[in-house]
Amino acid sequence: MKAAHITQTGLAENIVYGDLPTPKPSPTQCLVKVGAVSLNPVDTYIRSGMVPMPLPFPFVVGCDLAGTVVEAGSDVKRFKTGDRVWGTNQGLLGRQGTFAEYCAVDECWLYPTPASISDEQAAAISLVGITAHLGLVRDAKLQRGETIFVNGGSGGVGSAVVQMAGVIGARVVTTAGSDKKLELCRRLRADHVINYKTQSIETELKKIAPAGVNVWWETLREPNFDLAVASLAARGRMILMAGREARPPFPVGPFYVKGCSLHGFVMFMATPEEQRHSAENINQWLAEEKLKANIDRVMPLSEAAAAHRLQEESTIGKAGTLSGKIVLKP
Ligand SMILES: NC(=O)c1ccc[n+]([C@@H]2O[C@H](COP(=O)([O-])OP(=O)(O)OC[C@H]3O[C@@H](n4cnc5c(N)ncnc54)[C@H](OP(=O)(O)O)[C@@H]3O)[C@@H](O)[C@H]2O)c1
User: Fold this and answer.
1) pLDDT in tens, 8-24
2) Which protein residue has the closest C-alpha to ligand 1 atom 32?
3) Vertex 122, ends 148 and 194: CA angle to 5°?
4) Residues 48-75: pLDDT tens digits?
5) In this predicted model, what pLDDT tens digit does every residue of 266-284 receive, in sequence order?
6) Is 159 helix (H, G, I), strand (E, B) or coil?
7) Which of 47, 111, 268, 310 is packed most tightly, with the most Cβ within 10 A?
8) Strand ranges inside the chain, DSSP E
9) Pairwise CA distance, residues 167 & 305, whole Å
10) Is 219 in the pocket of ligand 1 (CB under 6 A)?
């Protein structure tokens, strides 16, 4: 089969699109013929070695996938040959990745794809959708009628958070860096949008939510805690999920006096049961057309190295070239 793989960590140029043996599924795995995969910033951290992971070389890059089961292991209970599935959480913690024509994936990380949803859509929502759901439902426990601020609403994670918070019934305030991206956030049903390049978040939030926001979802790798804590309402919750190297100052007094709480997580450490619970809600919302993946572009899988460069430049290099997900097709 063709696969985008590396034999050592390093630059995006290390990714080779070439032949590898088609994997054999273990008793608990399904062999999935891949229809689409999508790219996440974490893929670039793993490929570069910035986030050290045990990697089975030659290592197929990528976490997300959607496709069709072509063989089910003898102990697989939830799927059979011909079923359409999506999943994420591959290419991590010693598992092989997804950027290939075929992947052997443990059934605990796979979910049925709703009939009306394309593989491109399912792959593109997978990691970011589960991340958004875990943070909003399991951790922040966002309630109908509350106000949430999402810093970075047009990005991969942010666009899922904005939509899901709206489905939950919260009032959504979000930021983006251009008129075009602000318009995208409005289409995702954000109630209020702030241009973080031309407007003051602090001033705008004071007008929109004078008593503070109930939840602050931070997608930036360098959070501004002074601004976030000052903008939280009493008993406000803050979600942190990016910025391993970040060591910003933290306003202890204002934080505890208001009874606020901080929730940090990485989606890939959530249990299979937690992730499946998120996936069930995501499937329902996808099928009801309440949730849609925010796809910036679709590329051939053979261009995986170029896609990695683009993601790196946009997210880590802060070029903002992308507005959502890169999907790749074998
Ligand atoms: N913990 C986890 O489980 C988990 C899961 C997924 C992702 N992550 C991490 O979360 C981060 C975001 O991932 P992603 O896939 O959403 O990346 P992304 O698609 O590149 O989105 C980045 C977002 O940041 C916004 N942004 C950049 N500079 C900003 C600023 N100064 N103020 C406000 N917004 C700004 C961008 O807005 P504009 O484009 O409008 O400039 C964009 O919406 C990454 O670091 C990723 O590694 C963590």
Assistant:
1) 999 999 999 999 999 99
2) 196
3) 25
4) 999 999 999 999 999 999 999 999 999 9
5) 999 999 999 999 999 999 9
6) helix
7) 47
8) 2-6, 16-19, 29-38, 59-60, 65-72, 84-87, 102-106, 110-112, 147-151, 171-176, 192-195, 213-218, 232-240, 261-264, 295-300, 325-329
9) 36
10) yes
